[in-house]
Amino acid sequence: MSNKLGLNLSKNYSINFDLPKRAKKKIIFIILHYTGMKKESKAIKRLCDSKSKVSSHYFLKKNGKVLNLVPDLYTAWHAGKSEWKKIKSLNQYSIGIEISNPGHDHGYKKFSSNQISSLIKLLKYLIKRYKINKQNILGHSDIAPNRKKDPGEKFPWRKLAKINLCEWHTLDEKIIKKYRCLKVKSNEEKIFFKNLHNIGYSKISKNNKINVVKAFQRKYRQVLINGKIDKETYLISKNVLKL
């Protein structure tokens, strides 16, 4: 694979995965993460440590080098308690990609150009190999909004969408910016949450409303993550649902 795609890929296997192998057709999602740790070396060590009980299929280093930690056809332990549409526990249906980044708790940084270049090559390969719908290229915060923020608002979803590797709204950002912070009507708020549920976000309750809104904003309205439903966020939700 590395030669075909021009990827600097090496194997660094983790023992944290489930047996037996799964069927190729069972892989229908790709979940993107950041490591959320200060040191890259410690993140790799943790993903390969049997005591940690976490792993991923791929690890993208800051320099763009890709490590294959778990073979694709085995279930890695990256998603945890998760849900998208009617599917729960996404580990068994997905490939997990960890991207080295200190994350929100340790000085969240922009992802390096080398990382994104490698990620693009890797995604193209995986999408083609497993016939994955671009609607199913998701962030960890999409499938676990109450627990996770990654890969976060600095992740270039829009750039990936331009080359058909994920979804992004089709609205003109200069035009919809004028709707930012404008209040929505009560019926529009209900429609908004219905839209998010139909897009795939988990059941929304009084306790997790803000987290789900923030997860949606981290993906589709990255300049302002406040957990508040304004007219701009509402319009984006309508547009994404139509994609």
Structure explained in plain terms:
By secondary structure, the chain is α/β, with parallel strands linked by helices. It has two domains: 2-162, 3-Layer(aba) Sandwich (Lysozyme-like); 173-242, Muramoyl-pentapeptide Carboxypeptidase, domain 1 (Orthogonal Bundle), CATH 1.10.101. It is 34% helix and 13% strand. It has nine helices and ten strands. A six-stranded mixed β-sheet has the order 1-5-4-9-3-10. A two-stranded antiparallel sheet has the order 2-6. Strands 7-8 form a two-stranded antiparallel sheet. Strand 4 (58-60) and strand 5 (66-68) form a beta hairpin. Helix 7 (186-199) packs parallel to helix 9. The two termini are 31 Å apart.
Give me the secondary-structure topology.
Elements: H1 2-5, E1 9-11, E2 17-18, E3 29-34, H2 40-48, E4 58-60, E5 66-68, E6 75-76, E7 83-84, E8 87-88, E9 94-99, H3 113-130, E10 137-139, H4 140-143, H5 157-162, H6 173-176, H7 186-199, H8 209-220, H9 231-242
Parallel strand pairs: 1-5, 3-9, 3-10, 4-9
Antiparallel strand pairs: 2-6, 4-5, 7-8
